[in-house]
Amino acid sequence: MPTDERLAVDLLARTEYGRVAASLRAMPFLACARHIVVDGRLLLRMHRGHGYHRACVGHVVAYGSDNLNRARPGCAEGRWSVEIVGKCAAVEPTAAELELFGPAPRSVDGGVPFDPVYLRVTPQFVTVDRQGATRSDPTRPVRPPGATGGDLERPPVTVVDL
Questions:
Q1: Residue 77 and residue 25: Cα distance in Å, rounded?
Q2: Are 38 and 91 contacting, i.e. CB atoms less than 8 angstroms apart?
Q3: What would the pLDDT profile of 118-137 be if each residue is shown by its tens digit?
Q4: Is 38 exposed, middle or buried (0-12, 13-18, 19+ CB in 10 A)?
Q5: Over the Cα atoms of the chain, what is R_g?
Q6: How far apart (Å, rounded) are the C-alpha atoms in residues 157 and 100?
Q7: 13: Cβ–Cβ under 8 A, 6 or more apart, which residues?
């Protein structure tokens, strides 16, 4: 697995929620989802009742998560954001995967019973944005000699062959 993809997967494994972006009748939308990382792929749990999964299945989607509002000042990993673009498919999770998700919410939107649907995103493009990571962090990209700019570290997009 390429370094940027491995870093993205490792960072995503540290969060539980993110946002999936797709289009529905040519209009873009963002939907919250619970996620886990299994074998380098992203498994999402969403509420079926909203119908967003129908716009995702069989299409390319973007998924992002971050620690921007949770990172402590001075922490070694700094602040980061991960974006994954990939093909999305409906799946039935295994018992082990369901256990990784933990309990599903009982309801959404003020009392509507939560009806889970599961999607798998196979990464094709990965972007990792990092801010303020310390030099002691071995996963932090090293700025090439002569490069200028702030402390934002943005490795190039990684293309992952499927």
A1: 39
A2: no
A3: 999 998 999 999 887 654 44
A4: middle
A5: 17
A6: 29
A7: 36, 37
CA distance 60 to 43: 14
Kindly give the pairing relationship between strand 79-90 and strand 27-38.
Answer: unpaired
Q: What tokens were used for 32? A: 């919250």
For 25-133, list the strands marked E by DSSP. 27-38, 41-47, 60-66, 79-90, 107-108, 112-113, 116-131
Contact indicator for 40, 7 with CB cutoff of 8 Å: no
Q: Decide if 44 contacts 63 (C-beta within 8 A).
A: yes
Amino acid, single-letter form, for residue 76? A
Q: List beta partners, residue 85.
A: 62, 125
Amino acid at the residue 88: C
Residue 70 DSSP symbol: T
What tens digit of pLDDT does each residue of 41-67 get? 899 999 999 899 999 999 999 999 999
Q: Residue ranges of the alpha helices (H) in 13-94? A: 52-56
pTM for the full predicted model: 0.77
